[in-house]
Structure formats: structure tokens, C-alpha cells
Request: fold
Amino acid sequence: MGEQDRLNTVGHAPFKALVGSLIGVCLFFIPFPTASGDTQIPLVSLIDGIKHMLGDGLQYTTVGVVMLLCVTWLASQFTAHTRLKEYHHKDGYITGGIFILAAIFATLLVLHIGPDWLLDKDVGGMALKLGSSVLLTVSVAGFLVVFLMAFGFPEFIGTLMEPSMRVLYRVPGRAAVDAVASFVASPAVGVFITNQFYKDGQYTQREAATIATSFSVVSIGFFALLCSIGGILEYLPHMIVTSFIIIFLTAIVTSRIPPLSRKRDIYIDNREDAANTTQEHASQHILVRACQAASRRAAATGLATFKKALWDAITFAQKIVAYVIAIATLSLVVATYTPVFNYLGAAFEYPLAVLQLPDAGAIAPTILISIAEIALPAIIISGTQADPMSIFFVCTLSTVQLIFFTESANAILEADIPLSVWELVLIFIIRTLIALPLVAIAAHLIF
Reply:
């Protein structure tokens, strides 16, 4: 009977793969008409609906989640509780300090108690709003992404795209799924998917590090937000296309130079990468191999997969939101009340003038500030009456730098992927230097 059940499972695997993957594709990628007459991706509609339903309750939920995180971390330090120690095995005193700081900031902001610099809507208010949004988005999308990950869709796309992704970026074809998922949800969701594949032994250290820092694109909604802040909504399609082209061009370079090129080609369990795995079954048609790979993955998916996905999404979101609130608040304070980023950006004024960009003096302070928060450059440039070409340049550049500590960088640091803070800063600088002339060329072509 057990053998018969096994055969039935294998026989149903193609149908299971098709249905599960279609649900995932519809949830994440296919826009449907809404009651207002617009079209929207179901995932975004679901998140927006929950956000509207919760209202101010979402902020209170966020405070509760961060407070609970502090309690469990403190208990893991001063008790012998095995489960708590396992949950916080990577969280040292610095991380615990961030958790506590986040709880303090979040509590003061919700209660509207504290100094003006913290309660400023563009500082603490923005940090709490970002944190609440990340908590909801990562929890919901992180769970529903199981339909994309566990029913063979990455294996299907990965097999088809393996040749080009290997040649161009030295990563598996399924990395394309990570990029698209972050585009429709958030960078943290893209990092979450990459981390899950890494923990499952499907990416090496180098591949996981490359994918997390090269393809965790901001969502399409955030593109629209940046254009709205800058007052250039009519250039939204141009910005999206330009950003994607430059992101994929930049990845060709960054994947081949340090620090990413120095990451080891070993899996999380210390297995070495098998160089010739992509040649397996080469005699079969690539579409046949893609379908077979998807069916094999779907056959192994059951109820336990969904339970694990829910736990992983909630616990990942809980720690990320603490990073977001604490680090975003501090970063926004520095950006708003000190001239630090003005000093750092001064070195870029001459290169920007050489690239013949108008308002080079106004652009320069925005070049490095997006490492704190991706929306800051757009906010700063929008208040300067700058030329639309300059605003387009600033907004587009911030979307291709990818590393910012209010979300993507924190998600990477919380993940199991072996990347340090200084490596992320270095990758951010490298991406910025590569992207500067490319975004300037695009701006000149469009304007």
C-alpha cells in the first residue's frame, strides 16, 4: 500500500506542480481588475486590504512584536530554555541592543512621547511606518511565496534560464525568480527567498551572496512612490526599464569582482559545488528537463512545507522589523539633522558636472544617502526645484544601488548568507560607481 501511495504521489506530481505554480504566479505576477477599476497584483491587494483593516492597529501590533522579541532575547540570555536559545543562537549583545532600541523607539513613537527629533514624521514617523509595512509584507508574502518555491516553479524557470544566468552572472537560473518576487513584493521578500534556497542547499555561499546583493530589487509600488515624491510620474515606465537594464548590467561586473568573487563555492553544509551539474541529462530537450525538475520538487511538497513556511516568514519578519525601526530611525536622524551626507556627497559634485547633469550641486548630497533609506534622495531633491532630468537621475540611481539599511541590508544581515556590514557598504559603493555613468547616459537619452 505504501508503494502504491508513492506511485500515486509521483503520478500526480505534474498536476500538483502546475496547479501550485499557477497559484503562485497569479498571486505574485498577474494583475487583476479591482473594484476601483484599476488593476493590481493579488498579493498587493491582499496586503493593502489587511493594512486597511488593521489601521492604526498595525503599529500597535508592530510594537507588540518587537517587545516580544526583546523578551525572548533576554530570556535566551538568562535562562536555559533550549528553544529560545536556538531561536536566538545568532543574536549576540549588539543584536540584542538593536532589539531593545527598536522597542524603545517604537513604544515612544506610538505613545507620542519623546524629543521632537524622534517624533518628526520624516524621522521616527517614517521609521515606524516602514517597520510596520515590512512586518506585514514579509509575513504575508513570505508565507504565500511557498506557492512559488515549493511547487517547482523555480526549478522550471531555473532549468530554462540556467545557461544564460550561469554565463552572465555565475548563478543558477532560479535566481531570476528571486528578482521578480522582490519586484512585486519587496527586497526583504527577495532576500527571504534567496536565504531559503541557501538553507535548502540549492545555492552556494557565493551564489547566495551574489543574488541577495544583485537582484533584490525594490517593488514596482516603490518605483511609483519615488516618482510621485519627485513629481515625475510621467517618467515611471522609463525609470522601471532603465533601472532593470542597469541592475542586470551592473550584476555582470559585481559578480566577478571582490567581495562577491571571493565568497566560497560551498553549500551551507560545506559540500563543494558540483561544476558539471548543469550538463546532466543534456540529451533531453530543455523544456522536458524543466518539467521533470518541477514535478520532482512538487512531489516532495506537503502540509509540513506550509507549516515551516509560515514559521520561517513570521520569525524572519519579527527580527527584520526590529532592525528596520532601530537603524532607520538612527539613519534618518543623521540624514535630517547633520551635514554628514553633504560632506560625503561633496566628492561627487565634479563627476556629476562632467556627466553634464543639471543641478550637480543639488544632486551630490543624495548620491550616498540612499544607503540609509532609499526614499531619502527623492525627498531631498524634490525640495530643491531641480530640473526633471536631475530628479529622474536621483530617483533611478537610488533604485539600482539596492543596498539600504532600512530593509534590504538588514534582511541580508539577519539571513544566513555570509555577508558582513562592511562588505555590504563596499558593494553599495561599487554599485554606485558603476551605475553613475550608466544612469547619466540613460537620463540624457530620455531627456
About this structure: The chain has two domains: 2-32+40-217+287-317, 230-263+320-446.
